[in-house]
Write a structure and sequence with these properties.
alpha+beta; Uridine Diphospho-n-acetylenolpyruvylglucosamine Reductase, domain 3; single chain; Uridine Diphospho-n-acetylenolpyruvylglucosamine Reductase, domain 2; 3 domains; elongated; about 300 residues; about 20% strand; 15 strands; 9 helices
């Protein structure tokens, strides 16, 4: 991590190394693991093989495994783990599917890894409003498989079958970002467990809201340093290029089909939809222009 401190006279650059991070005291770590074992039983794993699976990176940093792994199944599991670790000063690292490549899942100071892969339920789907509520362990491919029969799809594709919680925490994007935006543009609300175990909810399902602080986008891209995402409300940016029967294409408002094409190419669908929207906009502008010209002629007369 590089911190730049600027002043009028000069610029100072300070480097913080992971070697400067202090591991928890052995007694504190032992007490933490005992309490977690009493709470989670065999869902607390301390074997070296599992710990190694929860630490990897393609950077210059070596893999740095945690001291233990908790397999969370609900929000209360995350909350209890965070509270116990906070009382003893033990670090906590959230883990989705481990597809990130920048070392976010590394544990340079040891601590407890919370594995969220079992929190993989799609809780609600609001097809008419183009949004859904999911747990953080739901993967991109699993979500699209669930949404396919309802004529919807989630367009953010970072190139791996990542978990949606991890994608939000790292503000993932992909090849569709130019058309559909990144995770920052497609998350409406979050349920987050803060570092002291408090649960907060940010945002709502409303597409338009300017009330209060924009805490949702504060947590997106924070990489778990501000809190652990326990639930997401995400926006379905577009209709799936095929309806549930696999025939025809739907425009964004679902009001009519674009005729003559059964292609599953979403870009081809989007280009045709854009051209249709441009034609409607052009016709509207021509109509307004006629009104203005007619009004000017009447005024001159």
């Amino acid at each position: 991590m590089i911190i730049v401190l600027e002043s009028r006279e000069e610029t100072h650059v300070a480097t913080i190394s992971t070697d400067d991070l202090k591991r928890p005291e052995p007694q504190a770590l032992s007490s933490t693991l005992e309490r977690l074992a009493a709470r989670f039983g065999n869902r607390l794993i301390t074997s070296q093989a599992v710990r190694d699976q929860h630490a990897h990176t393609t950077t210059w940093l070596p893999p740095q495994p945690p001291d233990a792994v908790v397999m969370a199944q609900e929000t209360a599991d995350i909350q209890d783990t965070v509270r116990i670790c906070a009382e003893h000063g033990v670090p906590v690292i959230a883990f989705g599917t481990g597809t990130s490549l920048e070392g976010q899942v590394n544990a340079p100071a040891g601590g407890v890894c919370i594995d969220l892969r079992d929190m993989n339920k799609v809780l609600e789907v609001h097809a008419e409003d183009l949004d859904c509520v999911i747990e953080p362990g739901v993967t991109r491919k699993a979500l699209n498989e669930h949404l396919r029969d309802q004529g919807l799809f989630f367009p953010i594709d970072p190139g791996a079958d990542a978990s949606l919680g991890g994608m939000a925490a790292t503000r993932a994007s992909g090849t569709n970002a130019v058309r559909y935006g990144t995770m920052r543009d497609n998350v409406l609300a979050l349920k987050v467990v803060r570092g002291d175990g408090e649960i907060i909810k940010t945002g709502t399902r409303a597409k338009k809201s300017a009330a209060g602080y924009d805490l949702t986008h504060l947590f997106i891209g924070a990489e778990g340093t501000l809190g652990i995402i326990a639930e997401l409300t995400i926006d379905q940016a577009a209709r799936h290029p095929r309806n549930h029967r696999g025939r025809g294409l739907l425009v964004r408002d679902g009001s009519r089909r674009l005729p003559g094409h059964d292609s599953g190419d979403p870009d081809r669908y989007s280009r045709r939809a854009d051209r249709a929207a441009q034609r409607r906009t052009g016709q509207g502008l021509q109509f307004l222009l006629k009104i203005v010209v007619a009004g000017d002629a009447a005024s001159a007369a």
